[in-house]
Amino acid sequence: MITIKDVARLAEVSISTVSRVINDSKPVSPEVRKRVLKVIEETGYKPNDVARSLVTRRSYLIGVIVNNLAQSYVADVVRGIEEIGKMYGYDILLCSSYSSKETQEKYLQLLDRKQAEGLFLVGTKFDEEIIQLAKSFNKPTVFFARDIHEKMNHITIDCNSAIYEITKYLIEEGHRKIAYFSDFENKTSVEHEKIEGYLKAIEDNELEFSKIYTVGGNKHSHAYEFGKSIIGEVREFTACVCSSDETAIGILDSFIDNGIKVPDDISVVGFGNIREGKFVRPELTTIGEPYYDVGAVGMRMLIKMIKGDKTKQGRMELPFTIEKRKSVKKLI
To answer: With a threshold of 0.85, does the pTM exceed it?
Structure first.
């Protein structure tokens, strides 16, 4: 096995010079750098990561905690994190907590022991104690979550404007009675933004009808059962805006299974643009969130902080799209 001593001997330099080239820690003349890198390439020398981290106090490791790997959007977020990380020489350690507070605590402590240089937390909601624990390690941290406050470094879209625009789209298609289906009774900060966007669109367009339903969860099963419970009320409105694609798909399936045609009897729109929305029938019209970009932009933000950028990060907003598909009927 080639060692750093062998590289130094073949390049006719000191071991410390080879170390400076590898770690980019101190200036080395272009000629010497070129000679050392040529020897490294020819010999296939690989630095010992453990020894390297002891010397440089750098692990080049990013800890990523996700609430649920089974959610399709998580894969796109993680892909963005991983690809940008590779560009800058960072590896990621991926941990799935399945929304367990105890598991999140365990993983945060593990990542601290592993000397992760930064943390990226992805999920619907993180308990305040988890947020404070993450902060206590004094590591650059970025969140992609549904419940946030302005002191967190987080990636998001303008959820208020997104729901406003998709409600306005339904109005432009001729709908005058539009209901809103919220995932949770205990509203997250992002859910409050969505509801405000819905109500503002109703008000700005001088519609007399508005109705907000609480589904009770963001799983397909929650929405499906809730949909069945309001079949008798469906004729009161011609369209519904759902706060997530999971809810929209559950509602859509429930309506269809109980004799309500989508979109002929009622139009349904979602939020998130998860992959499943393209495969239900009819295909789901929805708000598109740029999940890959969430990971990529968040990772760039994280690396800037690791490198000492003291600029206040806070909220980073990304653009959204309206994905117009088959679940909306034009009434005019």
So the answer is: no
